[in-house]
Amino acid sequence: MSWGFLRDLLSGVNKYSTGIGRIWVAVVFIFRLLVYVVAAENIWKYEHDEFECNIKQPGCENVCFDHFFPVSHIRLWALQLIMVSTPSLLVVFHVAYRENREKHHKRRLYRSPGDIDGGLLCTYLTSLILKTGLEIVFLVLFYKLYNGFKVPRVVKCDISPCPNTVDCFISKPTEKMIFLYFLVATSCLCIVLNLSELSYLVFKHSIKCYLKRYIKRCQ
After folding, report:
1. Labelling 161: which of 6, 45, 98, 186 has CA 20 to 30 A away?
2. What is the CB neighbour count within 10 angstroms for residue 91?
3. Which range in 13-17, 85-89, 208-212 is most confidently predicted, on average pLDDT?
4. What is the mean pLDDT of residues 44-53?
5. CATH number for the domain that contains residue 9
6. SMART domains under this entry (predicted)?
7. Are 186 and 135 in contact (CB under 8 A)?
8. Strand order of the sheet with strand 166-169?
9. Is residue 160 assigned to a domain?
10. Residues 31 and 151: beta-carbon distance below 8 Å
11. Residue 117, CB half-sphere, CA atoms under 13 Å: how many?
12. What is the DSSP string of 103-154?
């Protein structure tokens, strides 16, 4: 898979973001996308081939692997990365709509199409809420699917067609667990950044509305 589209998307969103939003883009691009492409993807590349059980019963190893890893870590991370970046398209589309509207009317309708105010503010807040919600959903999904944020060295399996309880061994569990903690930590950091930006924009807009009312009252 080529990650060029996601990189271009994040670069486009960066133009219309606040300072906190630009930090979020940097965290996603450097600490999530690059780490995923450069390191994490290679660690889980041969996870099925390196999953070994102490029995040669046909089908047992495949069934045990499917039971303990119902969805590949690496594919779930890729899906998470795509999903949490997608809501940013709402902002890009809204700005493009504003620019197209100005071209259609052949006059300036906004102080700047990229200014976060009016309808674009609602779109931006919606994108932040969606990104935060998706981050939380994926963290819960990880926790439920893998029984916590850990990678055990040995897993015991007694599912048919295994004749009895067998021990299965996961390769490089410590290295995998370190990267798992790192990616969970960056996901939590992105949640904090999204909530901070959401609070900042709501506070800023509230102050702006209050000042407008105050000035009208004084006049």
Report:
1. 45
2. 23
3. 85-89
4. 80
5. 1.20.1440.80
6. CNX, Connexin_CCC
7. no
8. 52-53, 166-169, 154-157
9. no
10. no
11. 8
12. HHHTS--SS-TT---HHHHHHHHHHHHHHHHHHHHHHHHHHHHTTSS---SE
**199 lies in which domain range?**
3-50+63-155+173-218
pTM: 0.84
Asked if the structure places residue 192 within a domain, the reply is yes
Mean pLDDT, the chain, rounded, equals 83
- 111 band by pLDDT with thresholds 50, 70 and 90: low
pLDDT digits (tens, 9 = 90+) for 160-172: 888 888 999 988 8
Question: Is 120 a domain residue?
Answer: yes
Instruction: State both tokens at 111.
Output: 């102080």
Read off the pLDDT band of 26 (50, 70, 90). Answer: confident
Which residues is 157 bridged to in the sheet? 166
Domain count, the chain: 1
Distance in angstroms (rounded) separating the CA atoms of residues 143 and 80: 14
Is 162 contained in some domain?
Answer: no
